[in-house]
Amino acid sequence: MDWDERQATCPRGNTSTWWSPASQRGTKAIVVKSDKETCRPCPVRDQCTRSKTGGRSLSLQA
């Protein structure tokens, strides 16, 4: 997790493409997403996401 660059790096070394502040159930959070075109063909995809079609998505408490 690189807070200064606002990016997360996956186990394969790919960086996230989206970072946004959010509110989840009244708690401040950061939502980080990776591009589905990067995640979909990844051989270790099941280690990062349960989504069958989308990219990795993380919700971090801010």
List keywords for this structure.
mainly beta, three-stranded antiparallel sheet, globular
| H/E element sequence | EEHE
For the secondary structure, the number of strands is 3
Helix segment tally: 1
- Largest sheet entry: 3 strands, antiparallel
- Low-confidence parts lasting 5 or more residues at pLDDT below 50? none
Question: How does this model look, in words?
Answer:
- The protein is mainly β.
- Helix content is 6%, strand content 31%.
- It is built from one helix and three strands.
- It has a three-stranded antiparallel beta sheet, with no helix packed on it.
- Strand 1 (18-24) and strand 2 (27-33) form a beta hairpin.
- The radius of gyration is 12 Å and the shape is globular.
List the helices and strands and how they pair.
Layout: E1 18-24, E2 27-33, H1 36-39, E3 57-61
Q: TL;DR of this structure?
A:
The chain is mainly beta. Helices cover 6% and strands 31% of the residues.
